[in-house]
Amino acid sequence: MVAAGGEGEKVRQPKSIQGNAGDGSIYVDVEPDDEHLETIVVDSMHTRKVEMAKRCCGFVGLPGGFGTFEEVFEVTTWTQLGIHTKPVILLNVLGFYDPVRQQIRNSIEAGFIQPYNESLITFVDGPSSKDEHAEYDWGKAALEALQEWHEKNKTNDLKKGKNVFDWTRKTGDENVKVDALSVS
């Protein structure tokens, strides 16, 4: 699943400028595989996120801007609330997400986030030097993190519905399941 927004055109620069950006960026001209490509048109950003959540086995966030931040925190909140039980992985390229990790820890210390919810986001830390980073396989690291999360969470409290919001409501003597998004 590929999703891009905002200033996404910067990822489709011609090959002639690869390595010439001067900022350590590497631009790759990727040709889509139309044979396996499905275009889904939706009427809102929320519907788009629900559709992505229905179809994926996890979420991987790369360094990005406001849209990336919003989507990462929304799917993390969905995990916290028990709307889905899917991993949220952040590729911490050259420490990009270190401030986010620290903000989560600050929120735990201040009492806004429960300590057990620190593990709702998995940070994948690669090499700290730019030289090593150039050869690092972030795709492999992301897949390994997804695999580890699924192995670790087969039987943990998250899968059992513990430490998540109770989406049932009381009506008389009967509990009724509230299926807000249907993104299991």
From TrEMBL:
<dbReference type="GO" id="GO:0009691">
    <property type="term" value="P:cytokinin biosynthetic process"/>
</dbReference>
<dbReference type="GO" id="GO:0005829">
    <property type="term" value="C:cytosol"/>
</dbReference>
<protein>
    <recommendedName>
        <fullName>Lysine decarboxylase-like protein</fullName>
    </recommendedName>
</protein>
<feature type="region of interest" description="Disordered">
    <location>
        <begin position="1"/>
        <end position="26"/>
    </location>
</feature>
<dbReference type="GO" id="GO:0016799">
    <property type="term" value="F:hydrolase activity, hydrolyzing N-glycosyl compounds"/>
</dbReference>
<dbReference type="Pfam" id="PF03641">
    <property type="entry name" value="Lysine_decarbox"/>
</dbReference>
<dbReference type="InterPro" id="IPR005269">
    <property type="entry name" value="LOG"/>
</dbReference>
<dbReference type="InterPro" id="IPR031100">
    <property type="entry name" value="LOG_fam"/>
</dbReference>
